[in-house]
């Protein structure tokens, strides 16, 4: 639990009251990864609205992304690791 709180930016061992937000804090952490070959990486990038709508030089973007892929791929795949940290607590009203 202390490591989960630390990853969320909460001082280790701090009572929930010190946060001014609530009681009964609980945490969880989940790790996940997406793996892409070059075609999948290009598809993932172009499915993002900010790429689809914002990139003017599509050929240049694809070439740059392919160069990044070539630099970082292992066995023809790049991996996007994710870590989700969640905190659950009962909200309380601070005393005046």
Describe the structure.
42% of the residues lie in helices and 30% in strands. The protein has 2 domains: 1-31 and 84-96, no CATH class; 38-76, no CATH class. It has 96 residues and is of the alpha+beta class. A two-stranded antiparallel ribbon has the order 1-2. The radius of gyration is 21 Å and the shape is elongated. The chain has helices spanning 2-7, 16-19, 38-46, 49-54, 58-72; strands at residues 22-36, 78-91.
Question: What are the low-pLDDT stretches, counting only 5+ consecutive residues below 50?
Answer: none
Task: Report strand order across the widest sheet.
Answer: 1-2
| Quaternary form | single chain
Distance between the termini: 30 Å
User: Measured on Cα atoms, how large is the radius of gyration?
Assistant: 21 Å
Structural class: alpha+beta
Q: How much is the average pLDDT?
A: 82
The percent of residues in helical segments reads 40-55%
DSSP summary: helix tally: 5
Q: Write the element-wise H/E pattern from the N-terminal end onward.
A: HHEHHHE
Q: What is the beta-strand fraction? A: 25-35%
Could you say how many structural domains there are in total?
2
In short:
The protein is an alpha+beta fold.
Topology:
Layout: H1 2-7, H2 16-19, E1 22-36, H3 38-46, H4 49-54, H5 58-72, E2 78-91
Antiparallel strand pairs: 1-2
Please supply descriptive tags for the structure shown above:
single chain; 96 residues; alpha+beta; 2 domains; 30% strand
